[in-house]
Amino acid sequence: MQVVSARDIAEQNQSQEALQIRENSRRKQSQTLVQLARSKTFQQGNLNAVLKEITETAAQTLLVKRVGVWLYNEERSKIECIDLYDVNTKEHSFGNSLSQENYPAYFQALEEERTIAANDAINDTRTQELSQPYLCVLGITSLLDAPIWLEGRLVGVVCHEHIGELRQWTLEEETFAGSIADFVTLAIEASERNVVQEALRQSEAKFRAIFERSSIGIGLIDMKAQIVDTNPVLCEILGYSREELYAKRFTDYISIQKGDLKLYKQLVSEIGKNSGKTSRFGFQISKLEEQAVDKHRIEMERRCLHKDGSLVWTHISVSVIPDSNGEPEFFLAMIEDITERKETELKLRASQEAAEAASRAKTEFLATMSHELRTPLNAIMGLSQLLQQEIVGSLNEKQNEYVSCIYSSGEHLLALINDILDLSKVEEGKEELLLSPLPVSDLCNYAIWTVRDRASEKGLKLTYKIDLQEDICIADERRIKQMLLNLLTNAIKFTPVGNVSLVVKKVPQGITFTVSDTGIGIDPNQFQFLFEPFKQLDSRLNRQYEGTGLGLALTRKLARLHGGDVTVTSTLGEGSQFTLFLPNPVPSKAVEDGKNEVDEGDEGEEFTFFSSPDIPKNKTILVVEEEEKTATVLQEYLESIGYKVKWIDNENDFLKQVQSLKPDLVFFDFQLTKKTSILNLLNILRQNPSWKDTPIVIMTLSEPIEKEINKLPASANDYLVKPIRTVKLESLLMRYLS
After folding, report:
1. In the UniProt record, does the keyword Cell cycle occur (predicted)?
2. CATH fourth-level superfamily of 620-737
3. For residue 140, what are the contacts with CB-CB under 8 A and spacing of at least 6?
């Protein structure tokens, strides 16, 4: 009899198979980590590209449907998804956010645990808060989340999302997820380091290029006045090579005047004050010397000694370059050869004095004419009125005719004097507008009442119509009356028979006053000369109609002073239409004060009047601005001219707003771009094919900021200096939206 021993080896085979599967998974995870460690994408510092590689690789290794990287916002009130990879669609997306206020247990778990391995995510106490708004919607059953730590601070989380049956996460998978989070940390560090290094490299390259290629001589001098470096132009000015000038005393080549040493000490002292340290120079400086040290530099004209012994006139600007601790380290001297300018100064001085004398003579002449001509004209017009009223005795028909002629001629001469003075004042930029709300009906009544007798004398029908919902316009009362009278008087003058009308209408950009007549009309070929001073279009009209041509020239200048214009349409022999356009005023400090001084250099206003008639429609603009007043005025202005505008006061919702609004143009406060996190957002935006061409305009506080904007070539398209002027703003709108 034989005994056969047999046992069930199925259980043993299953155990070995499970061990083999786990071993294969560990090997695959190790290979993935090695692959990421060797990846060249990390070395390039492109955060968006690195995150895409990490999420794709992690999803393929752990065999999950979705892997996302979420980072805290600046206020740490929520986490935002900056990259989410979906295995099914093989696409990346971004923009979702989770608020800490709504999910406190989940956020607390992120702070306390190395990984959150939620096998049953819907019922797990750490993640069940996410069930209704997130997990159930997407069909997520299991979560493996690994917090991202940077310099001992929690900055985000990597989420591995499993869809389908519940999944039991292994210890090896938790360890792998933690390693993936560490790789995200490395990617963020590399990106920030790359931004800093690139900015430094560009700065150094630009400095060297400017130094070598500048058309002005540049010298770098140490605090002992010894020359450290010179550019080719300075070598040419002094006649020495760079090697010959090295380590020589800078003051040996520059003529020194009394007080120069004190100016240099004051310059160094200012740097010491700015760094919060006490200067080692103690002395008193005069007011005159203090003015010479302007904006932390010295500006002066001195003669330099050339190698051949000749003297070269130069303009020298000296500033101080501090070290990393704020202590003065070098003098930077900018030297321009002005010998030719000095030689021509004497020649120009004579012509300049002659021009100034002519200008003074013109001013004195106008002032004298204003007084000397008005005085006798007052007598002429006053006495002729007395004669017309026959106070001193009756007049016969011929005498009455002569007296009327005297009065009308005096009136014409007085109007001519006024026009000349006004035109001269406007052209010199001395005219001031006293802006105030004015009833349009009162303005029209005044103008019609003033010219009605002239129209009646010629048998003309004079009418006016006001087509306005609100009977108010904002303008200078005296000047708008003057403009309306000029247009109406002109229409009556050149209309032998028929009618003259004034029509007031509201248009989207402002208000129009249109004066129409059935007069002689104007040849379209003559329009170009219509608004020139002292110009009548047809010499034959000079004999038939009196006038100097000042009225229309002055009217257009006054209209443009208001931010508007005067336009004309006409048919020869049928009549003309002159339209005075006044724009809607945009709130500004000058309007609130009731006064708008016309000065192109005035920096006191944030906005002036809008005057462009063509605005593209159906465009969306996103404004990212911290300062509420600037944002509010900009938003109201853009909306008033037809744009859809969304304003956010921080960067937190930036990507989300871009994704939902799909803006045609973005205005971005430059102060926000100084944060590394914002640079990352802008770079992510630029690297997304859908938004890479969206124009971004950086709003800066001053013009020199443009140099810093050049450090963001991949992000910013243009810049806009605050206070914002509509001329520049309109130019940007037309450039990017028309």
Report:
1. yes
2. Response regulator (3.40.50.2300)
3. 66, 121, 134, 161, 162, 163
